[in-house]
Amino acid sequence: MSEWKRAVIAAGKRMLAEGVTIGAWGNISVRDEAGRVCITPSGMAYGTLTEDDIVVLAPDGTRLEGERKPSIETGLHLAVYAARPDCRAIVHTHPVYSTAFSAMGEDIPLFLDEAAQQLGDTVRTAEYALPGTPELAENCVRALGPRSMACLLRSHGAVCLGETLDQAFLVSQVLESTARIYGLIRSMGGAFLPLSQEDIRAMQEFVKNEYGQR
Ligand SMILES: [Zn+2]
Q: Rounded to the nearest whole angstrom, what is the distance from the C-alpha of residue 181 to the centroid of ligand 1?
């Protein structure tokens, strides 16, 4: 599991460097081919984590490796993995603009090309529940639905999914930039023009099948 643990540690440092969370907030996990989940420990500074600090869990939450108390949102990560077989990595952050929309209980629609390409579906805000509770995990899974790669936790932050950690980070960056532009449009007193469902689907197909150096 060493390689996976190192990836989680690197992602923690990246999360701090990108300014999408403060202190020890937020959490990160990856799932390997066998379904084992590597997750960050609860309340430890990201800059100091070593492989021994990363907790490895079976899909049902049974501890396989590590002595630390795992992230308070471990139940949420496991619930998302159970509901979304396409998801292999989860990054939970508190980015400013996305979190502002979460505090208003608003959804972020796919009104930009890059959002349509990367976010999968409207980014919905989950109903409020206290951090670390099974209710929050349930509300998060419901907000994600079968297709969205991200959701907002009301008055809290964002949950971003990916096939890889890099992909989950990309989703988190696209979500935050979309939230920022959405806020800007509204502060200008304007409204976005919606993309058609047909165009959204065409872009998603293109990214899946043709984009890049395949
Ligand atoms: Zn959080």
A: 23
**From the CA of 204, how far away is ligand 1's center (Å)?**
29
- The whole-angstrom separation of Cα 129 and Cα 141 is 13
Per the residue annotation, which of 18, 51, 73, 163 is the catalytic one?
73
Q: Cα 151 to the chain's mean position, in Å?
A: 7
pLDDT tens track for 122-135:
999 999 999 999 99
What tens digit of pLDDT does each residue of 147-160 get?
Answer: 999 999 999 999 99
| CA distance linking residue 46 with residue 132, whole number of Å | 19
Q: State the distance from the centre of ligand 1 to the C-alpha of 21, rounded, in angstroms.
A: 9
Domain ranges for the chain, please list them: 20-28+73-209
Give me the CATH code for the 20-28+73-209 domain, please. 3.40.225.10
Catalytic residue check, 3: no
